[in-house]
């Protein structure tokens, strides 16, 4: 398969690339690095990415920013960061990719444990993760040509504890390589409309 | 209690008002009708509503538009209708109300069954409902002064079948008066961070 990993230069993305590159051709898409550049907030940039890649069988997304802040301080603008970037950025990859992806292809998006197991300062992240999970369940039933879509919902990644650990005291982390297996299951399996919870 | 029901002139809202007005003072907020007018997409309009109402103990929201359309036709703009209206409109009610609501007050938002039980043309509705459920779970843990927040997630309402029934073949509907009980439980109970699924 030819698989585009958007965010393939990030912590999870690198592990996904390692796992999938054992058996497939992987094209790494990044904002500034990688084989091809893409700004997921910009549909035209996504169209350009797909055009430059040519034929592809799977899109994996491991990207998306959200704003972390205390509930009392969060503004509509703060919430829109996550809605525009992690949520709609990933949805844009599906919207623009749907007509281009090969028959039987798949999309795999990234949500996260905060949808159901919230933390302080995480209202936006929870909102966005819940949206992604439900979007994948819904989009799956309308896809044609055996195209599939799943979400991977990881807990905090062991390699990210240095940066994010203070938000996640008491959470069990998972190594990126373990989370990467769920992406492999999504891409290489046959399931659709699933949310793979890698919560421990 | 003094309870603001935003959308109190709608199908669910009227039933909520009937239930709550038995025991409380209810202020109905609507876009064009009701005791006070509000545009939930506009934070300033919400601020004005709260100012004109004065002291209040609970906010119930039964409003929110989303765009229904086939997955293949949905654009980013189509998705943003639901994100700006049903999602952020309701979140705006919380953001602007948090500092004004009485100690021990509550917010009750409306999501819906499509978060987990999707239909054709419902990708945006699913996304938005999932976001609302997860937002409520997260926001609950950061609220102070015993303020609470819950979501009510109804299935299709019996009184709405004439308008929406064709999207929901095979779904069991619930009468608005039954859904209204969940809002009463949220407002008059002591639970927080809950999603009351009125799915059958």
TrEMBL record, chains A, B:
<comment type="similarity">
    <text>Belongs to the short-chain dehydrogenases/reductases (SDR) family.</text>
</comment>
<dbReference type="InterPro" id="IPR051122">
    <property type="entry name" value="SDR_DHRS6-like"/>
</dbReference>
<dbReference type="GO" id="GO:0016491">
    <property type="term" value="F:oxidoreductase activity"/>
</dbReference>
<dbReference type="InterPro" id="IPR036291">
    <property type="entry name" value="NAD(P)-bd_dom_sf"/>
</dbReference>
<protein>
    <recommendedName>
        <fullName>Short chain dehydrogenase</fullName>
    </recommendedName>
</protein>
<dbReference type="Pfam" id="PF13561">
    <property type="entry name" value="adh_short_C2"/>
</dbReference>
<dbReference type="InterPro" id="IPR002347">
    <property type="entry name" value="SDR_fam"/>
</dbReference>
<keyword id="KW-0560">Oxidoreductase</keyword>
């Amino acid at each position: 398969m030819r698989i585009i990993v958007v965010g393939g230069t990030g912590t999870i993305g690198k592990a996904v690339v390692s796992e999938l590159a054992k058996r497939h051709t992987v094209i790494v898409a990044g904002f500034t690095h990688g084989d091809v550049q893409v700004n997921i907030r910009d549909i035209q940039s996504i169209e350009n990415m797909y055009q430059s890649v040519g034929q592809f069988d799977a899109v994996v997304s491991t990207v998306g920013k959200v704003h972390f802040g205390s509930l009392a301080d969060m503004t509509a603008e703060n919430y829109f960061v996550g809605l525009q970037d992690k949520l709609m950025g990933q949805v844009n990859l599906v919207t623009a990719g749907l007509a281009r992806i090969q028959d039987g292809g798949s999309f795999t998006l990234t949500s996260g444990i905060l949808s159901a197991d919230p933390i302080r300062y995480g209202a936006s992240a929870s909102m966005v993760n819940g949206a992604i999970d439900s979007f994948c369940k819904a989009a799956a039933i309308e896809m044609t040509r055996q195209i599939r879509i799943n979400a991977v919902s990881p807990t905090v990644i062991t390699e990210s504890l240095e940066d994010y650990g203070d938000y996640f005291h008491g959470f069990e982390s998972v190594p990126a390589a373990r989370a990467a297996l769920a992406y492999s299951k999504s891409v290489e399996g046959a399931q659709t409309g699933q949310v793979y919870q890698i919560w421990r």
